[in-house]
Amino acid sequence: MAEFEIIWQNLTREANMCANAGCVVVYCMYHNTHNEVHHIGHEHNGRRRSPVAVAWALQRYLIFAILSCVPDRQRTIRELKVGTTLIKSSEDGKWYIRHGPGDYKTGKTYGPRPALLLAPHFYPELEAFMHVWRHHLNPQHEYLFSMYV
Predict the structure, then answer these.
(1) How is 54-108 classified by DSSP, letter by letter?
(2) CA neighbor of 11 nearest in space, from 30, 24, 25
(3) Domains of the chain, residue spans
(4) Which residue, 3, 40, 89, 106, has most beta carbons within 10 Å?
């Protein structure tokens, strides 16, 4: 968890968040994260990137993409687990973040939170990260995101 908090601190320091029509738009000021996704396999000089570099760039993009449609606490992102708090609906194929009563401090009082829908435009990147790229970060845990060391 402490490793992800370091990532979080670096990302939030480098990001500028502003409200736009009721949702949060995230602009990455330093890393140009959206551009990295479009050119994820190559460096700016045309050389191919290592699988670890691709996984790291895609993870950074996904953190911002999730925050852009689910403006929640960093703990929500930090503790995402596929199949537990990050769920793909078998009915409509959409991805949701779901918190049960044990996932947040006041859960015993308020019960499960409503499901938070992720924006469909980054589902391909999310699924590619989970099935192709995540293992290059050598995760030793069940959480979606990892700290690359």
Answers:
(1) HHHHHHHHHHHHHHHH----HHHHHT-BBTTTEEE-TTT--EEE---GGGSTTHH
(2) 30
(3) 2-137
(4) 40
* Per-state percent for the chain, helix, strand, coil, to nearest 5: 45, 15, 40
Token pair for residue 87? Answer: 């769920």
d(CA 141, CA 125): 21
pLDDT of residue 47: 82
pLDDT of 140 strictly over 70: yes
| Predicted local confidence at residue 39, as pLDDT | 55
**Between residues 39 and 84, the one the model is more confident about:** 84
pLDDT attached to residue 132: 94
pTM, two decimals, is 0.70
DSSP state of 47: P
